[in-house]
Amino acid sequence: EVQLVQSGAEGKKPGESLKISCKGSGYSFSSYWIGWVRQMPGKGLEWMGSIYPGDSDTRYSPSFQGQVTMSADKYISTAYLQWSSLKASDTAMFYCARGGRGGVISNDAFDMWGQGTLVTVSP
Amino acid sequence: SYVLTQPPSVSVAPGKTARIACGGDNIGSQSVHWYQQKPGQAPVLVIYYDSDRPSGIPERFSGSNSGNTATLTISRVEAGDEADYSCQVWDSSHEHVVFGGGTKLTVL
Questions:
Q1: pLDDT for residue B1 is more than 90
Q2: pLDDT given at position B92
Q3: Chain B residues closer than 8 Å to A37 by CB
Q4: Comparing C-alpha atoms, which of B96, B103, B82 is closest to residue B23?
Q5: Which pLDDT tens digit goes with each residue over B68-92?
Q6: Is B97 close to A111, i.e. CB distance below 8 A?
Q7: pLDDT in tens, B41-53
Q8: Which of A12, A4, A24 has the alpha carbon at shortest distance from A82?
Q9: Which residue of A has its CA nearest to B48?
Q10: How far is the C-alpha of B22 from the C-alpha of A72, rounded, in Å?
């Protein structure tokens, strides 16, 4: 079964760092792009960026460039999203999703989603 | 950057047809994907490349795309179809994924 399993909910204080994970199974993890999507409370989906685990090629949305760092370890089929200094406005649900196959990013859909990781940042 | 516009809400009676629009400049020249998200759940792909259905998605779900509007059509709407629906394209000019703002489908 193809699936993405994300790490559990996090409660952090402003200024703290955080790294959440997304582990794939049931398919060749290194051969598909992984996208990260933010959903703030009561709001829509926002693409943060995508990473290709095969060579860690990464694309960031301008809205998130410099605010987060995406990485991947193809040997353990896991992608990561990290913050160096959280803000209260980072409170949201974060999803990873499987994108297209191959090293060239394109217009493929996100056909499989993780269950989401809820990040809450408060003093 | 590219903008996708969706109506905030659509209401439909059970058994009727719901149509959810996704507007964008010459969107007909792009491939559109649609996601369903029920409360407390992750999104699920229901239509890809304008009109293809992933396995497991009922035939009641269909899609079309022409001109400046893509449309997700749900026939014979059921109570279980009540959810948020979001469209998505790939902005090749900027190498960005773009989501529409989402439409809440209410089954009356």
A1: no
A2: 87
A3: 43, 99
A4: B103
A5: 999 999 999 999 999 999 999 999 8
A6: no
A7: 999 999 999 999 9
A8: A12
A9: A109
A10: 33
- The single residue listed with the structure tokens 């406005």 is A89
Q: Report the Cα A94 to chain-centroid distance in Å.
A: 7
- Kindly write down the DSSP assignment for every residue of A4-35, as one continuous string: EEEPPPEEE-TT--EEEEEEEESS-GGGEEEE
Whole-number average pLDDT of chain A: 96
pLDDT value of residue A35: 97
Identify the helix (H) or strand (E) that includes residue B87.
strand B83-91
Residue A103 has pLDDT above 80, yes or no: no
Which of B6, B97, B103 would best serve as a mutation to test chain A binding (most A beta carbons within 10 A)?
B97
Q: C-alpha angle with apex A48: A94 to A19, nearest 5 degrees?
A: 50
The amino acid present at B85, given as its one-letter code, is: Y
Do B8 and B101 form a contact (C-beta atoms < 8 A)?
yes
User: CA-CA distance, B60 to B58, in Å (whole number)?
Assistant: 5
A78-93: string of b/e by CB count within 10 Å (b at 16+)?
A: bbbbebeebeeebbbb
CA separation for the pair B21, A90 (Å, rounded): 30
Cβ contacts of A42 within 8 Å, gap of 6 or more? none
Predicted confidence (pLDDT) per residue in A32-85, tens digit = 999 999 999 999 999 999 999 999 999 999 999 999 999 999 999 999 999 999
Pairing of strands A117-121, A10-12: parallel
Asked if B43 and A113 count as a contact pair (C-beta separation under 8 A), the reply is: yes
